[in-house]
TrEMBL record:
Gene3D superfamilies: Aspartate Aminotransferase, domain 1, dopa decarboxylase, N-terminal domain, Type I PLP-dependent aspartate aminotransferase-like (Major domain). Its cofactor is pyridoxal 5'-phosphate. GO terms for biological process: amino acid metabolic process; carboxylic acid metabolic process; catecholamine biosynthetic process; serotonin biosynthetic process. GO terms for molecular function: aromatic-L-amino-acid decarboxylase activity; pyridoxal phosphate binding. InterPro entries: Aromatic_deC, PyrdxlP-dep_de-COase, PyrdxlP-dep_Trfase, PyrdxlP-dep_Trfase_major, PyrdxlP-dep_Trfase_small, Pyridoxal-P_BS. Signal peptide: none annotated. Belongs to the group II decarboxylase family. SUPFAM superfamilies: PLP-dependent transferases (SSF53383). GO terms for cellular component: cytoplasm. Pathway: Catecholamine biosynthesis; dopamine biosynthesis; dopamine from L-tyrosine: step 2/2. Its EC number is 4.1.1.28. This is Aromatic-L-amino-acid decarboxylase.
Amino acid sequence: MEAAEFRRRGKEMVDLIADYLENIEQRPVYPDVEPGYLRSLIPEEAPEEPDTYEDVVKDIERVIMPGVTHWHSPYFYAYFPTANSFPAMLADMLSGAIGCIGFSWAASPACTELETVMMDWLGKMLKLPEDFIAGTHGQGGGVIQGTASEATLVALLAARSRAVRMILASDPQRPETGITSKLVAYSSDQAHCSVERAGMIAGVRMKKIPTEQSDKYAVQGETLRRMIQEDKAAGLIPFYFCATLGTTPSCAFDHITELGPICNAEKIWMHIDAAYAGSSFICPEFRPLLNGIEFADSFNFNPHKWLLVNFDCSTMWVRKRSDLIGAFKMDPLYLKHDHQESGRYFYTDNSLFRSLKMWFVFRMYGLKGLQDYIRKGSNEVNETLLKRINNGRKIHLVPCQLSGQFVLRFAVCARTTESRHIREAWRLITQLAEEVMQELPH
Ligand SMILES: *Cc1c(COP(=O)(O)O)cnc(C)c1O
């Protein structure tokens, strides 16, 4: 394909994408196919002679679409959200065209520098402690990973390396294998399965901390403290704790303000996995959920879930860059360049130009636009709803303000109220709410 045809086909593809997303509601969200459906629809071998572009495009509807689960259908409520926005898709096109790989500053200065700056922008939106921001006097900073699972593993490997170094520093005679076989890591029994798998990959014990329904499935400080004591008494070496803010089954939040100081006192690396819920911390009213971050060694969440940056973009911050760089440093001659010490960069793997997506999205939505997206509703909607409810004179409520939000209170007041009255009130409220939502932009 020459550039002239690419110009034409590119515009057609943009139309195809816009049509797909504008009409996605009409497609069945879940495909009606059996395993192996696709093999029978395409040849056994790659074509000897080239196919035409038209043939390829025709097969999108014939071969691909029947087997697609439409994650961006408004009827999709499975797993978790996965981000998708036009600015991010456009940035991805540009990133594909530049096609650089930023494994060092010299490999593409714009790629590595933009990543560091975007991580600072996002870190500031989240009001992370200065330690985690690269453009300060702190020793930390952010790096983009492919997935939260990767971030958990990277943190675990860095923690393992730090633990071994610390122990060898105090006892140089001790054989290293003797140390790793004693290491023990912890996470909630509600943690994502990738945490357990990280333990398997790293070859260390990973213990699940039991949680209770009565504690809303959050890990309690007391439970962690007791397990650490028991394990130390048994000769084990606790070295890593992965806290979850927003667990996969129930969006539970571990009490990191309690857990963090325990980890700090025991020199246990605390990693925070906030893959899904993390995006919400850009709103001041949700930011308290991140209190305790000041005790963490590393923190991660997925803008590719809930912050409009298309997959993949999983953002990870560490308090000390040297913990990551030190753990995985490779120094081959072909990666040496004249500005080796110039950066604050710590590209531990092949970084693509993923930061372009962040740059486009952050600039074109602005913090306000991103916050509106998380909140998906305005005070105006609630105010209008309350007016409608009270004007109807069937039921009567009053509002309140919570962190700048207009909230409708529903208090059960009269001695004579029975559940049928509440059900009737609820029916009325939902009916009026639906009317308001149809009328107002939201
Ligand atoms: C979604 C999720 C993960 C997995 O994220 P990936 O980026 O797909 O690895 C891990 N932990 C939590 C809490 C999640 O919500």
